[in-house]
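User: My advisor asked me to double-check a structure prediction for Putative proline/betaine transporter before group meeting. I don't want to rely on an old file, so could you generate it fresh from this sequence?
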Amino acid sequence: MSGESAESTRYVVGDADDGTRRRSRRRALRGAAVGTFIEFYDFAIYGYTSATIATLFFPGSDPAAALLATFAVYGVAFVMRPLGGVFFGRMGDRIGRRRVLTIVLSLVGVSTAAIGCLPTHAQIGTLAPLLLVLCRLVQGFSAGGEAVGAISFAYEHAPANRRGLWAATVIAVGAVPSMFSALLVLGISNSMSAEAYTSWGWRIPFLIAIPLSVVALYLRLKTDESPAFEQARKNDVVARSPLRTTISQHYRTVLWIVAFSGLSALGYYLFIGYLVPYIEAVLGLDQDVALISNALGVGVYAVALPLAGLVGDHIGRKKLLIVGSAAIAVVSVPAFLLVSSGSLAAAIAGQCLLALCVCVFGGATYCYCVELFPTNVRFTAGAIGYNVGFAAFGGSAPYVSQYLVNTTGSSLAPGFYVGAVALLVFLACWKAPLSRTDPAKAREAGPAGAMS
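Assistant: Sure, here is a fresh prediction for Putative proline/betaine transporter from the sequence you gave:
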């Protein structure tokens, strides 16, 4: 079924404001957010324990090479994300968002906990890093269906004037496990000797994924299916081949999503995947400085991102994209200069500054990823663009950043890299299309602009 056919069946989400509908909406937002929490918890824990994982799974005389190998495994999961996005996105557009998100959540939780059970290189040799890679492949494949599926689910349940807020909130909740993980790793490492932490303590955060996933699964099962998808199914406009429709009718739009999600991913995964080992291994500062400053920076991100999404609901996504990309381009090098100064206060200031700028851009990006597409291909098209961008820029962020530091000898090299990418995206933003439901265009279109 064509995207145009879906366009004719769009309806206003949120006309019924009775108590039942409001409760259903709240359950939907919680159900979308908790799955994202588990997904980002996995990636955050791996990033925060990467220095330990490097010594246990990639032993060698060169710590920098071991850290690069650990970051390469980190990036492997992102290679699988586009494949998972296509697989689960197609399912989500065919059988519904809720059922697919339940499957995805189960896979993410099991594969995360499995890392905590892996034997090390000292115990089984080269099989250890191979098993680690396998776990990361499963994590990446399943995560490919989580974020955009959750954003689509929240977006389609949200009131028309709060879609940016809800989409950003889903991702902001994903930042909470980053802060939680930093404090968790800090607490565990400080509660035992270094030998005990290296021996078994590092496994605890991964195993905690089991009870977290059970709670998240319970909350997700309490949700109702997306009203937009139900309407599409009722009117028989569910796409027979969402992937074919995406490629034939929406490929240009997907490329825009790749660019914008790529910059958001680069900024975000520098926080949760690179800055802690960067502060420890590259700058030689204490782990406490790295974890405390990073937790505060991620905390700022978690609070500021929904606010930026709300601003986008009022002024439009495109304006926010332009301002956010310009801000990242300007502050990235000064932010890294502050982080590398050796002071805890400066490290906090640098990370908070960069977090605010990434939030301004991200406040528009996440809603933009699904808003540009009709209901019948929203999950598939959004997942392809989002996950390709995240694979290309998010998954490679720690590796590329460390490679630049190693080859240039400059601790500011990652800042220049982020600034250059942001500048290119800033130039592209001026040509970016407005969605039919972007607030800036909706004001011109009148009531039709509220159609989902």
